[in-house]
Specification:
The radius of gyration is 25 Å and the shape is globular. The protein has one domain: phage-related protein like fold, CATH 3.90.1690. α1 packs parallel to α4. The protein starts with a helix and ends with a strand. Helices cover 25% and strands 24% of the residues. It has 6 helices and 12 strands. The strands form 4 sheets. Strands 1-10-11-4 form a 4-stranded mixed sheet. Strands 8-7-9-12 form a 4-stranded mixed sheet, with helices on one face. A two-stranded antiparallel ribbon has the order 2-3. By secondary structure, the protein is of the alpha+beta class.
Length: 305
């Protein structure tokens, strides 16, 4: 068997190990992001305002003409990410199991790919309080312009305060008053919004969304909880403070709006080759993607402070 055959023999095995670990732990980003496969160098999203409300018309008179306003374009530019490892000719010559012992490195490569995608997508939310979205404002801001031509009217998707029953009620009022289209028409709040949070808020969320969140067993109070079943809780470990995020931030996200996007040019894949000069069997994993928010109407967020 030639050296090339030896390397190629193990490539499918490593590929399976890598992809197995990549998908081993349930990933959160597909619940929050619109995942798209696109092979172009750049993926562009252009928004239009739509048309405004109908207006009065006079008999035998012209009018009622309207035109959409161009929104704020967003360009996704996929970046290549990769990881490599190798085995020397000598290692294989002296140990017939040398390549097979690289299983751990192949598995670690898959874990690393998963971590990279999860960290990058979670970072869009965490950094949304300090990173601009296409309209030039932070993703979560109280100063989003109505559209590119009417910048004097602004909308607010920056929530305030720690996650609590009262603050969730205030958030719903704020959403109702600010969830507007670029033409100024109210957008119906999508059903089953996500309540996205770090693990530190697990208990708060469980109590907040419980059927009996307001029940007081030692009294005659038996209030229902109107939040029960209204939100889908999504716990995301990559939002946590020890992962570079925040233990207090919380987000109400509308995945059906499809404005948080992960664009794949190439999903994780595996390859191998022979380096005769250095006498190594090389193995490589690579992927190309980009992620971001195409519009602030993806959701509302609070730092929790």
């Amino acid at each position: 068997m030639t050296r090339a055959e030896v390397a190629q023999l193990y490539t499918p095995i490593y590929d399976e190990f890598m992809l197995q670990e990549y998908g081993e732990e349930t990933q959160v980003h597909p619940k929050v992001f619109d995942v798209i496969e696109d092979s172009t160098k750049e993926y562009k999203v252009d928004g239009l305002s739509g048309l405004g409300e109908w207006v009065d018309a006079n008999e035998d008179a012209d009018g009622g003409v309207d035109a959409p306003v161009l929104g704020y374009p967003k360009t996704f530019t996929q970046t290549k990410f990769w990881k490599k490892f190798y085995a020397t000719f000598e290692a294989v010559d002296q140990d017939e199991y040398a390549l097979l012992k690289k299983e751990g490195e192949a598995r670690a490569m898959g874990i690393g790919a998963r971590a990279k995608v999860e960290r990058d997508t979670a970072g869009i939310l965490i950094n949304g309080f300090a990173t601009a979205c296409p309209d030039g404002q932070y993703l979560f801001s109280n100063s989003h312009p109505k559209n590119s031509e009417e910048t004097g009217t602004t909308y607010d998707n920056l929530l305030s305060g720690a996650l609590s029953h009262d603050n969730l009620e205030l958030a719903e009022t704020q959403i109702a008053g600010n969830f507007m289209s670029p033409s100024g028409i109210p957008i119906p709040t999508p059903e089953s919004p996500l309540l996205v949070h770090a693990p530190a808020l697990r208990g708060v969320v469980a109590r907040l969304l419980s059927d009996r969140a307001n029940e007081q067993p030692d009294t005659t109070v038996r209030n229902i909880n109107r939040f029960a079943g209204k939100y889908t809780p999504v716990e995301w470990r990559y939002l946590a403070a020890d992962m570079g995020g925040s233990d207090t931030a919380w987000f109400i996200i509308f995945p059906s709006m499809k404005m948080l996007k992960l664009i794949w040019s190439a999903k994780p894949s595996f390859s191998a080759w022979i380096d005769e000069q250095l006498e190594r069997y090389w193995f490589k994993g690579r992927m190309l993607n980009d992620c971001g928010a195409s519009d602030w109407r993806c959701g509302f967020g609070s730092t929790g402070l």
